[in-house]
């Protein structure tokens, strides 16, 4: 990623994280021996603090950004190792050890590769293109990307449904054990009738969901979209919201699949 005009650029949180990760701050040189009140030149201590706080914010408050498609050209661990090797080389070059200073600096990524789009760049471009028919503003799309709307709540809802299903099955087993054999036979007949009605209802629901209705676990995401999209109820229907959430999950929720493109 290359920022053309830093003064007017509007970047999402994932783009800021990608840029700072690909361009780590330089560590200040070691102070000379027997020096007091020494100030490095250039003084990058405040800049390094800001970069550190941004990484802390992502890891503590916005961990969903790390599940987005890969935002670096090489694996993050390898990139961090290269940055650490570069910092160690500069620190050793400032020391009086001539043998260490004579060693060659570690090879970093060439500028041509740094300007090459990453998988998350392709995902963001695809997201913006596919959301255009819904008439969202730049600020609304930016907030959707920053908050990861529709990604984490859906996963949490699936886990909750799994736990509720297990509890329900345990209760049914306990009731069957307490009942007599005659009651068990009667319950089986009733369950067969109920299963037929339930299957018919599920088929109708599946047909309705296929027509663009909002899934039950997506109502939390829709409530969050109501705070992001101005006058959402007048501009977008539930079918539109379902389409938006599908696009978000297919582009930003791809993770490793998107990175392999």
Written overview of the protein:
By secondary structure, the protein is mainly α. The protein has 13 helices and no strands. Helix 6 packs antiparallel against helix 12. The longest helix is centred in the last third of the chain and has 30 residues. It is elongated. The two termini are 17 Å apart.
Strand content: under 5%
Roughly how many Å is the radius of gyration? 27 Å
| Amino-to-carboxy terminus distance | 17 Å
Q: Report low-confidence residues grouped into runs of 5 or more.
A: 96-106, 153-158, 196-211, 256-261
Count all strands and give the number: 0
Order of helices and strands: HHHHHHHHHHHHH
Helix content: 55-70%
Number of helices: 13
Task: Give the overall form.
Answer: elongated
Q: How is the biggest beta sheet arranged?
A: none
